Each structure stands twice: as C-alpha cells, then as structure tokens.
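Lecture 7, part B: from sequences to assemblies.

Below are the input chains for today's worked example.
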Amino acid sequence: MTNKTLIGTAYDGQVRFIISDTKELVQYMHEINGTSKTAIAALGRAVTIAALMGLQLKDDQKVSTIIKGDGELGQIIADADSNGNVKGLVSNPYVDLPLNEKGKVDVSGAVGKTGTLKVIKDLNLKEPFIGEVNLISGELAEDFTYYFSASEQIPTAISAGVLIDTDYTIKTAGGLIVQIMGGANNDVVDKLEKAVLELKPLTTLLIDYTLEEILSEMFKSEYKVLEEENIEFICDCSEDKFIRGIKMLPVSDIIDIKKDKIAKVKCDFCQTEYEIETDKL
Ligand code: ZN
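Predicted structure of the full complex, as structure tokens:
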C-alpha cells in the first residue's frame, strides 16, 4: 500500500505541515467494507486525518478518534499510531444520501451537524490525553480544525477529502494538516491564511499534481520536507483478542455461546472472520 506522506516545516520553521495521498488506503477500506459513496467519503476523511495525527506522534504513541454525530452514518472510529498504521469503521456503511446543494457528497448531512468529536491520545503516560469538542459542521476537516484550536490550543488548518470516480472507485483522496508553531510572527500567520484560502481543494489538486508540487503551490519555495512516511491499513485484531473479549461477557452469555461448537465472529475494522472453537472459552 503506497500512501505517500510528507512531513516538514515552512516559513523558517514557524509552520509545520503533514500532507498525504491516501487514495490506496481509502480504496482498500471502500472494498473491504462495501461502503456507499457517502460513507466512504466520511470514513476516508476521518481515517486520513487520524493517520496524519498519528504520524505527528512518536515512540509508538497512539491516537483514537471517535465521531458521534446525529446523522444516519452513526459512529465513526479511526485509530492510528506513530508508525503510520491506521484502521477505521463506520457504524452504517451502506447509508447513502443524495448530493448536497453544491453537488458534493453530503458528508455533513450523513455524519450530522450535532454531536461530538472525541480524541484519545495514548502518549505512553499513566493516563491518556482526552479531548472532546462539539461538532461544528459534520464535514470533519472543520471539526478537527476546531478540536485542535479548542482542545490543544494549536492554530490549525486541515483539508481532507475523497473524490469518487463515476465507476465508484476512489479517484483521489488525501489530507493536509498545517499548524502554526508557538511564537510565529504575524506576517507568517497572514501569509499562511492567504495560502490556505487560495489553495484549490486537495482532491482536485491530487488529480494532476504530486505532493511536492502541491506544497510548492502553497508555500512557494519556503518549505522543507523533513521526513517521508507511508500510511498503512493495519488491524490488530486476533483470535486471542476475541477470546479475551468473550470471556469478559456475563456468564449466561458465555453459556449460550458454548451451546455451539464454533462461535463465528467478525472484526468490524478489517472484516476478518474468526471461527472460534467454543472449548477455548
Ligand atoms: Zn481486524
């Protein structure tokens, strides 16, 4: 899976960015989940942003994001780590809405405009860092932008999108997080605001441009790539984990499950099916 990601700084280190082409990741998730256009547009945005947030971490730290809107998609979960591993799920992957009045996939309508975005960061400390904000629009990029300013006090611009082709495959998908570092001067803030405003939608740019060309378009020559990373869909489920999960159920449920020789379970993230011999429970 090639989901090229570039991490770097701009304007003399006063701004940091992370940009990724996540077309293969989103296409893979579209296939395993059999998602509708609307569901993959929402899930693709969420996993892309979560993956970028994961790559901002270090030393195997993890981030889990949970979007609970009042729309028909239900809950969206996207988990990532500092190594570029990501997984995600949406409760109702077949929900599809008509295009919105702008002719775009109605992510906001399907996620819901009311609800919460919760971010749990496992920073290898005793307690995880937990931040929660109300949804602003349900478009997700805006909601995560608000999360960063309200919960982490970092001025942030986020773009994330999924463009679906006429044959329902993913044409482009990607994400960009740009953040102003503490102590940046006002000129930089103004320059960045202008650059972000003038930038065409990322999914449009990704049709014809490489990530480097998009960065040049945005920052002119004033940026530096410090790292190149890759994002991968990886699920950490296993038969052992399911067995441990089942063992935590009430005894009456376990007795019920043990009536059959085999218990069939399916992972909601990667759709892998396990046939567990109930003797093991
Ligand atoms: Zn799994």
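Note for the exam: The mean pLDDT is 96. Keep this in mind when comparing with the next example.
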